[in-house]
Amino acid sequence: MQDLELFHKEHGKLIQEKYPDTFDPKWLLMESGWGYFHLSALDNQPWKEMHQEAEALADKFYSHREDSYGKGWKSLTLHGLNDDTQSLGQYGERDKVLSELDWTWVADKCPTTKKFLTDVWPAEFFNRVRFMLLEPGGYILPHQDRPDEEKRLSICNISLNNPQDCQFVFKDKGIVPFKDEGSAFLVDISNPHSVWNRSDKPRIHMIIHFELGRRTRDMFYTLRQSFYTNRSRLNEGLE
Fold first, then answer.
1. Interacting residues of 57 by C-beta distance below 8 A, sequence separation 6+
2. Residue 164, Cβ neighbours under 10 Å: how many?
């Protein structure tokens, strides 16, 4: 707990990155060094309905990383090998594992969520897609999921809700400003990060691991619209 408190005290502040004048997707994703990027082009999705679908399955979630760096952290898989799919590397040869991924029964119980993923999300292929629940008082200790040399914005983390006293914090990059009413961010999980839910409500997010496939253009437009919207909001003091 001491390490958790120290990490959040030292890094738990909002840091606004400076946006360049011109959008460059390669720079943004691979070279910016940003810890997160708000996909504001995806604002106004039915996050509330998606949260209700996930919340209705709360008793089906599996304990996640309780034996290492999580407390009160749970997961439920919408797309994977089964409804409790963990890191794919543990299941064998990557290409074979990827070919076996599919929608689970969870997706069938969550039609609004699945419709967002298949019709709106700007990528063709899904790897793991999971609901992640953090109980009141729960936490995820500081850790990094990729080595430093693999820095890139590549995983999507969507808040289906995010209570006021629950914070996701990156080392040196500060608080990710998730919205309680729902918001989508690309994140760089090579940066050490931690989450602490000091509220009295469960926090439910959705994590998307994906491959663009033939929808590179769709992602390009999503990134570009988000870039200029975010920059405009920052300039107007709205972000």
1. 76, 106, 109, 110, 131
2. 9
The H-assigned helical ranges of 56-120 are 94-100, 105-109, 111-115
Q: Based on DSSP, count helices (H) and strands (E) in the chain, helices before strands.
A: 7, 11
What tokens does 146 get? 């990729």
Structure-token pair, residue 163: 């209570």
Cβ neighbours around 21 below 10 Å, total: 5
Q: Which domains does the chain have, with CATH numbers?
A: 2-14+24-235 (2.60.120.330)
As a whole number of angstroms, the distance between CA 99 and CA 77 comes to 16
- Catalogue the E-assigned strands of 57-200: 62-63, 70-80, 102-103, 125-143, 155-159, 166-170, 174-175, 183-187, 193-197
Condensed to tens digits (0 to 9), the pLDDT of residues 178-215 reads 999 999 999 999 999 999 999 999 999 999 999 999 99
Query: Looking at residue 119, what DSSP letter applies?
Result: I
Of the candidates 14, 41, 12, 52, the residue with the CA atom closest to the CA atom of residue 204: 52
pTM over 0.90: yes
Whole-angstrom distance, CA of residue 110 vs CA of residue 50: 7
